[in-house]
Amino acid sequence: MRELIQQFGRLRLLALVIAFLPFAAMPLAGVVWLWQNGHLLEWLLLLVVCAGIAMLLQWWLAVNDKRRTYESRTRADGNWSSTAEGAWEHVEELAETADPAEYPLNDSGALLQLAQNTLERVAGHFHPEKEHPLLALTLPHTLLIIERASRELRKEIVHTLPFSHRLSLGNLVQARRLQQTAARYHKAYRVGRALISPATAVYKEVSRAVSGHILDYGSDRLQRWLLQEYVRKVGFYAIELYSGNLLLSGELVGAEGRPLQVLVVGPAQSGKTSVIEALAGGETEPEAGDKNISVVRISSAEWGELELWDTPAWKSLPRREARRAVAEADTIIWVSNVEQLDADYEAEQLSRLHRWMGERAGQPEPPLLVALTYCEQGDALALTHDLAETLAVAPENMVALSLADPLARKARQQLSAAFALHHAQAVRSHYWRYLNRQRRAENREIAGRQLRNVAGSAWRTARGVFRRKKR
């Protein structure tokens, strides 16, 4: 400060202060005039009213800005498993603690460390048994995470922040430095202002309380938002990768346009065909599927395209074919005739189905529903609860049906309600099943391409050596 005054010149500074004194006295003179004419109280009342209106407007703008910022933030994917959702909670915790003072945007080393911390949290959640879980990440996948996160963050900045296409990192850094410099001399300025013009000081202090630290809000909040989105983007694609949802091609592949596959199984004479008719809303014409499975294709306004797989009696269905059908199903309906129920046998078979579904490592399991048929007699609700405990099935996965007329409105409503309750889980299972299939296809394609390249290089090398020897 002393050097700045010396460079400017003491006399020149004194001349500037003397020239400014009449203007500084004007607010004081205005207050004296208001006091002499008896209008000081009205002016103070007007000041309070205007300050209150400004405070309400500022509060509304802050709430609206916070809402828009929250809406534009990166969120977890609805198809994630519970393990992936747990990893996302760790990412959110790290994002909320990201501080621009600790990770400046102009410090590439600090940003790289922040990305590494994010990856370590995600990797540690998916592989807690490993001492260094981050080292299990391959180099192409690491580069893919950085590439996708950077691209998505760029799009979000361009579409969310006004004038972001003209805003440079230097502008942000310069604004932060100016804010820090202003904060350093702000107290001295406020004291001097109060000594020179008390009325102006009162007005400015009220304005300051209403508007807040505008420079700090504009710079620090923007940088904090950028850091938080940076952490969320890196964490999002790390979770996509560790959970198997991200292909090396960079695509997030879903199963849009492919029908949900519903497997209907059960003992002989349990009412499987009637259940399919109730779901289809009429008599069906099955198409040829596998050797022992027929396919019924329907279209529903609620659920879209469906494939209903009708099977023979469970005992006559070959285990290998049954296992493959379970692996390919998005929803499984076990149909049980309460009049011919063998509780021990069916409980054992349901347990077998659960084991087969559990073989989908890292993927959401399809919902397993138990449809109890021929429930015309007795209390259906009590029967459902009793058999749920006997068969070791959750009560919400049980549905009691009266299929004397499968097309009756009551029968269709009961089955539709049970199916709709678990539809979201079926969609998640459907999504991950196709994604897993596409990931295996990609791995085969990459391995084949690498083998062809290695074989080609070896052939060219051997041919070159042979030609040199021949010469």
UniProtKB/TrEMBL annotation:
Gene3D superfamilies: P-loop containing nucleotide triphosphate hydrolases. SUPFAM superfamilies: P-loop containing nucleoside triphosphate hydrolases. Keywords: Membrane, Transmembrane, Transmembrane helix. Coiled coil: none annotated. The chain crosses the membrane at residues 12-35, 41-63. It holds the Pfam family MMR_HSR1. The keyword Disulfide bond does not apply. Residues 261-350 form the G domain. GO terms for molecular function: GTP binding. It comes from the Bacteria. This is GTPase domain-containing protein. It comes from Gilvimarinus xylanilyticus. The lineage of its organism: Bacteria, Pseudomonadati, Pseudomonadota, Gammaproteobacteria, Cellvibrionales.
